[in-house]
Amino acid sequence: MILQQISDILTQYAANSGGQAVDLLLRQRDVLAALSYRLAEMAGDAKGEYNAKYFQRKITVARATQRLINEGMAFNKADSKSLIENEDYYRAEMAKEAEAYKLDLLLKQCNQVLSAMSQRISFLKMELKSNQLSHNL
After folding, report:
1. Rounded distance, CA 84 to CA 70, Å?
2. Exposed, middle or buried by CB within 10 Å (0-12, 13-18, 19+), for 28?
3. Spatial CA neighbour of 37 closest among 29, 48, 25
4. How far apart are CA 126 and CA 129, in angstroms?
5. Alpha carbon 58 to its chain's center
6. Other beta carbons less than 10 A from residue 25's beta carbon
7. 3-state secondary structure of 8
8. How far is 124 from 16, CA to CA, in rounded Å?
9. What are the CA-CA distances from residue 128 to residues 29, 104, 118, 134, 137 (Å)?
10. pLDDT of 69-84, one tens digit each?
11. Residue 41: pLDDT above 70?
């Protein structure tokens, strides 16, 4: 839902760049700023989930390796076999890492757009003041 709302704002901003009124841009920027806060929370949560999956994988593989060594298998063979046996943990970790990475990139891009919106708003305000001055003369 949040990602869709952000996408909608960005689509509208891109489609109307240069032709939007200051008040509309201000509203969009305010909404986008609020959504970016929630996106930052989501990115932080995703990083926490990724770290948990990483830790879970490391512990599971270490336990499997130790179990195989205790059963008499050589370390190198036990290490390789435990990695293969725990492929699902690697896949789960990679999925969480990809999600965290994607949300972090989206947050950075959202901040770039907020900056661009602020610059556009400043420019439009200066242009409006300039037009008002020339009409008053």
Report:
1. 18
2. buried
3. 29
4. 5
5. 25
6. 19
7. helix
8. 14
9. 19, 36, 15, 10, 15
10. 999 999 999 999 999 9
11. yes
Mean pLDDT of the 21-26 span = 87
> Position 33: which residue type?
A
For residue 83, what are its two tokens? 């990695």
Rg (CA), the chain: 25
Q: Which residue has the tokens 């599971």?
A: 60
Burial class for 61, CB neighbours closer than 10 Å (0-12, 13-18, 19+): middle
Q: What is the pLDDT of residue 54?
A: 98
Decide: 12 and 28 in contact? Cβ < 8 Å.
yes
